[in-house]
Amino acid sequence: MQTSFQNKVVLITGATSGIGKTSALAFAKAGAKVVVSGRRETEGQAVVAEIKASGGEASFVKADVAVEADVAALVAKTVATYGRIDVAFNNAGIESTGHIPDVTEADYRRVFDINVWGVLSSMKHEIPVMLKQGGGVIINTSSVAGHIGMGGVGVYVASKHAVEGLTKSAAMEYAKQGIRVNAVAPAAIETEMFDRFTGGNEDALNYMRNLHPVGRVGRSEEIANPVLFLASDAASFITGISLNVDGGFLAQ
């Protein structure tokens, strides 16, 4: 069983905060060389500094996953710097609220450009690298919203259903070529996105807590740990799944 990512190269999008940041720190602690990516350079460089202060190796590449040229440059720079990509955690995403009649084209395109095209474009450029090197692991961030319908967040729900479909399709396309592709599907997690969603309103916070049978929302490390498992050799026979990490949310 692989317990270390020593000398492995891990690329993480949406790594400047939340699940992405926590995962970057965890991969680095396990020995990986981590490429931290996101739109916010100050925050990204801070993550890199934290990793280096703990004796790890990391670099930051600014990229907006909604822009294919950024994604292509991100992948190219990762390969130029470290020679390969062993693990890609396509984690960048954005929340959205609004009832169907109120959704604008701009709302839709903003969410789908990041949540769907961002994942698709990332895989488009990561997969050729992994094919050339003989294999690799891709993990996409989905959501419990990718498994069910939810009122008031229809565009977000649709985007995460799309991530589920892309994950399964990519897994089927490359299963025989040494590339495993899976998704992780969190419920509500204590992140900046969650804070924006609830607005710090105590009633909203209690509502979200009570949606989970465990009686609380999750912590980012509770997603990072399953991500590291899916990326490891311990998960070598797992591809094409969406791992629910949701405090019992989808069991209801």
From TrEMBL:
Domain Ketoreductase: 8-192
Keywords: Oxidoreductase
Gene3D superfamilies, A to Z: NAD(P)-binding Rossmann-like Domain
Superkingdom of the organism of origin: Bacteria
Coiled-coil ranges (or none): none
Family, similarity comment: Belongs to the short-chain dehydrogenases/reductases (SDR) family.
Database matches in PANTHER family: BLR0893 PROTEIN (PTHR24321:SF11), DEHYDROGENASES, SHORT CHAIN (PTHR24321)
The protein's name in its UniProt record: NAD(P)-dependent dehydrogenase (Short-subunit alcohol dehydrogenase family)
Organism for this UniProt entry: Prosthecobacter vanneervenii
